[in-house]
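Lecture 7 notes: from sequence to structure.

We start with a single chain of 122 residues. Read the sequence below before looking at the structure.
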Amino acid sequence: MGTEDLQGARASIERYEGLSDRQVAVVSAEVASRKKTRLAAYLLWFFLGGIGIHNFYLGRTTTGIVQLVMFIVGWCTFPIVIGIPILLVLYTWVLVDAFRIPAFIDQKNAMLEETLTAILRR
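Now the structure, written as tokens:
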């Protein structure tokens, strides 16, 4: 196990501290049913990444909207050459997103787990 794995396990244990076994089971079941998956994110990125759909799936709505607007503006102004640099920036951004998707998913799933444990602590 690497240090990142140990830190993640330690954070998960700390997150569940003070919860009963039943509450931990409820959180685990909810996280399992609601968590974001790499497969879905990469499929959306591959087929609809140019319009930012993968960002909407990952809860990054503002980024998704910006990419969608860049796509529309870029293709609408492509015939008059203005759209070429817009599309170059967009598709470079989408390509970079491919390498960042795992971190986005881990962050989203950790936030989900934290939110559910906070609700049960009330």
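The two ends are 34 Å apart (CA to CA). Keep this in mind for problem set 3.
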